[in-house]
Amino acid sequence: MADNKPPASGPPSGDTAYTQWYEVKAGDTLWKIAKAHYGDGSLYPEIFKANQDVLSDPDKIKVGQRLRIP
Amino acid sequence: MSHNHSKPRGTLYVLLVLGLALSACSNQMEPAKKAIADIEAAVSAAGADAQRYIPDQVKAVTDQLAGLKAKFEQKDYDAVVAGAPAVLAKAQGLLAAKDAAVKQAAAKQAEAAANQAAAAAQALATDWETLSATVPDAIAAVDSRVNILTKSKKLPANVTKDALTTAQANLADAKSSWQTATAAQSAGKISDAVIAAQQAKENTDAALASLGMPGG
Questions:
Q1: Angle at Cα B95 formed by Cα B89 and Cα B98, nearest 5°?
Q2: CA-CA-CA-CA torsion sign (A44, B206, B202, A6)
Q3: Consecutive H or E run containing B157
Q4: Residue A42 touches chain B, beta carbons under 8 Å
Q5: CB distance from B98 to chain A under 8 Å?
Q6: CB atoms < 10 A from the CB of A4, how many?
Q7: With an 8 Å Cβ cutoff, is B161 touching chain A?
Q8: Contact yes or no for A66/A27 (Cβ under 8 A)
């Protein structure tokens, strides 16, 4: 479901050894990712907020992107 | 005639010489006996533990004392009297030598204890450094996830309701233990701080496992 490898570019400030990471796959949406990790897709804003350094729009995620799962 | 008179005179002379020699010997017997007793008393005064602290010096004196006693047994009292002062001086020096050795041993022991205490303090400081660099992050990660999951209408497949309840309890314990740890650290009680921090780490590890989250 999730991997815990930080992005190759190095962790942004605030990331720790306990930060959980997820690599976006084809067909993923933040809703699906939130549903998988929290059981509730409506909680996707939590993931969006935690990744605002790489996401400007919750509807625009890219395959291969590594997202924090707070 | 004169020849007949010289024989008893010669015998008398021999007897006189022998008598003088015996007298001289027996005259030295008492001083020799006293000299040996004085050496034994000096060795004794050094104490039973002298053997433990200055074994070589004690052996040197007791060996020389044994030599004097052997000479005494051979009735060579002159040799005993002649050799005794040097041995007595060494025997009388044993007590001071032992005291110095005892002091040196005590100083070494104190130094070893101080080194051990410093090593233990360093180990605690290292433990604290490691724990203080990780436990707050672990608590924050669990706290964040618990907060989000409590808002969830349905839990994810890998987290049961009981697991979430367990994680919440572990999180509360971890926060409490961490508070205890930081208070102890601020008060300079590093040992108590490390114990409490380790407890906080155990609690967060348990919470992370309950929530299916990776450890640090």
A1: 125
A2: negative
A3: none
A4: yes
A5: no
A6: 15
A7: no
A8: no
> What residues have CB less than 8 Å from B181, skipping those under 6 apart?
B131, B132, B135, B192, B193, B194, B196, B197, B199, B200
Q: Quote the pTM value.
A: 0.72
Structural tokens at position B58:
């004690």
Q: Is B167 in the A-facing interface, judged by CB distances under 8 Å?
A: no
Q: What is the pLDDT along chain B (216 residues), one digit of tens a residue?
A: 444 555 666 666 655 555 555 555 569 999 999 999 999 999 999 999 999 999 999 999 999 999 999 999 999 999 999 999 999 999 999 999 999 999 999 999 999 999 999 999 999 999 999 999 999 999 999 999 999 999 999 999 999 999 999 999 999 999 999 999 999 999 999 999 999 999 999 999 999 999 999 886
| Sign of the CA dihedral with A32 first, then A37, A43, and A48 last | negative
Residue from B145, B147, B150, B208 to probe the interface with A (highest A Cβ count within 10 Å): B145
* Integer angstrom CA distances of residue A4 from A17, A19, A66, B120: 9, 7, 10, 35
Residue A9, CB-side half-sphere exposure with 13 Å CA sphere: 7
Q: How many residues does chain A have?
A: 70
